[in-house]
Amino acid sequence: MDFPVRHCVSINIGTLGATFYLPAEQHACAAAKAALGISELLEKVKSGKVPYMHGLSSSQGAAARIMEEIPKLPKGKHVGTLISPLEKAPFDPDVIILVVCPEQAM
Length: 106
What we know:
Pfam families: DUF169. This protein is mainly alpha-helical and about 110 residues long.
């Protein structure tokens, strides 16, 4: 990718068959970057201001609690993400995301 992409969008692109590397500077979602251990959570996101402005919670306080409770990998361990459909992955994945309906997950 030559342009910033949100993590959720990169996963969707992978489900369509693409294999690519997304370096830190092209991760467009601050919350995903923090959860993946790529960077610290920006204060405006950590405070709940940005998630609340985007309608992701009922209040800024609730958004701040959500941001605090999101599991996060240790900062500095990762510098980007490799995205690929499992059957085409030219690497051994650390994480496999299953995109399924609830019945398939059961």
